[in-house]
Amino acid sequence: VQLEESGGGLVQSGGSLNLSCAASGFLFSSFFIHWVRQAPGKGLEWVATISPDGFSADYLGRVLGRFTISRDNAENTVYLQMNSLKVEDTALYYCATSRLGADRGQGTQVIVSS
Fold first, then answer.
1. Alpha-carbon torsion, ordered 63, 64, 69, 70, to 10 deg
2. What's the rounded Cα separation, in Å, for the pair 70 and 52?
3. I need a labelling partner for 76 at 20 to 30 A (CA). Which of 16, 23, 69, 114 fits?
4. In what order do the strands lie in the sheet with 57-59?
5. What is the rounded end-to-end Cα distance, in angstroms, of the chain?
């Protein structure tokens, strides 16, 4: 299993970013995929999950309505569109094969400035 996150960066509060997760080495279209994050000095926090067919999603309450998870099974890629970003969204973001962060990659850094 290989997962590679990209798309992070520095953005002002209220701004947007679209993260990508490229998957390889497993039957991607059969797996739930999750985004998790780790803020400085804190543990891993689950953010969102998408079903294998892409028709169902679940979100951490604090990001509901601001973040949207989606996937393209033809491209073995999962996305996380993040809008109305807040300073507290600053974290290293990972995609993973479980809510606990299994198989996560190196992550992509998101920094939201006030």
1. -160
2. 10
3. 16
4. 9-12, 108-113, 91-96, 33-38, 44-50, 57-59
5. 37
